[in-house]
Amino acid sequence: MIIGLVSDSHDNVPMLERAIGHFNALSCGLVIHAGDIIAPFSMAVMGKLNCPFRAVYGNNDGEKVGLKMKAAAVGGSIEEPPVLIQTGKRRILVLHDCQDWHLEARKHRADAVVFGHTHELFLEKAPGADGPIGINPGECGGWLTGRTTAAVLDTDNLEVRVIDLQLEPGKEVQI
Question: What CA–CA distance (Å, rounded) separates 163 from 5?
Answer without folding.
Answer: 10
